[in-house]
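REQUEST ID: PR-0412
SUBMITTED BY: lab tech R.K.
PRIORITY: routine
TASK: structure prediction, single protein chain
INPUT:
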Amino acid sequence: MFIDVGFNLGQTLIKVKTVKSEQEYYGFEANPICFYYVNELLRVNRYQGCLLIPAGLSNQSGLAKLFSRYSSD
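STATUS: complete
OUTPUT:
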């Protein structure tokens, strides 16, 4: 099992699946735009054995505001 904390645009996912296509992959990402993009990456490349979790990891439980460099909806 490979765990990726903050998968961003899927760079590590692509490397993992290139080296070992059957590798289980679990990815966490708090940014909804990145989450959507990597879901499409999974679909287009037909990657199997992947679970994407739309959440960030912290030492505290609860909700937090996600800040971005650029203002956008």
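NOTES: The helical segments are 11-19, 32-45.
REVIEWED BY: pending
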